[in-house]
Amino acid sequence: MLAYPQIDPVAISLGPLQIHWYGLMYLVGIGGAWWLASRRLKSFDSTWTKETLSDLVFWVALGVMAGGRLGYILFYDLQSYLENPLLVLQVWKGGMSFHGGLLGVLLAVWWFARRTDKRFFELMDFVAPLVPIGLGAGRIGNFINAELWGKATDVPWAMIFPTDPLQLARHPSQLYQFALEGVALFIILWLYSSKPRPTMAVSGLFGVCYGAFRFFVEFFREPDAHIGYLAFGWLTMGQLLSLPMILIGAALMVWAYRNEGAKRETVS
């Protein structure tokens, strides 16, 4: 068994002002996404300025924050927030939903596409390879917060988290998600999108890979105590929300390549 590293969730304390690692991870994700996007900006659209890109990053980040918070409230803990609405402001304690954040991003990209005369999926294909940076940073934030830990296990790398009332050795599922949703997903999408692909293909691959990775990790992650398993005695909320991503992502890839094939036949 590995010892859980005792990391203070508060990174910087200036009197009454406290800056939490969880919040800093969002800044890392947003900053990393902006830097990577700037490297590919000219190949995406040579007419775009850095100011245009900054606007896109701002609106996407806003979609992540608003959608992630609202998604968590709706999908995972609506009753608690109805009883105490001020919990909405306590983002340093966690409580963000990826699937809600994804919906926020979709709305932000749709709105920005209308402003810039871009097609929705053109922008989504550009944005999708940037997302794993934020996902990976967010999972590190979960680990530092000692939240969203895994099921009890006897694997050699199990950890006892200080927030666990039962003090059981558990899977460090946050690190599993960091490795898959952050590192592996970034490598797959970055390499795949480095060559020209049919419109929608990159977005589709993101949906398939993220959905599959999340579905897999949920087998090792402890379900939320107030929700538990929702179907068949083993399906969690995360898995139920990820299944549509896999199906829609696969459909987008099939559609993208069929359209590409039809265009080639028309030209020939």
Automatic annotation (TrEMBL):
A 1,2-diacyl-sn-glycero-3-phospho-(1'-sn-glycerol) binds at residue 139. The keyword Hydrolase does not apply. It comes from the Bacteria. The lineage of its organism: Bacteria, Pseudomonadati, Pseudomonadota, Gammaproteobacteria, Pseudomonadales. It is an enzyme of class 2 (transferase). The keyword Transferase applies. Its main location: membrane. This is Phosphatidylglycerol--prolipoprotein diacylglyceryl transferase. Catalyzes the transfer of the diacylglyceryl group from phosphatidylglycerol to the sulfhydryl group of the N-terminal cysteine of a prolipoprotein, the first step in the formation of mature lipoproteins. PANTHER family: PHOSPHATIDYLGLYCEROL--PROLIPOPROTEIN DIACYLGLYCERYL TRANSFERASE (PTHR30589:SF0), PROLIPOPROTEIN DIACYLGLYCERYL TRANSFERASE (PTHR30589). The gene is lgt. It comes from Halopseudomonas salina. The chain crosses the membrane at residues 19-36, 56-76, 96-113, 175-193, 199-217, 229-257. It is found in: Cell membrane. It is a multi-pass membrane protein.
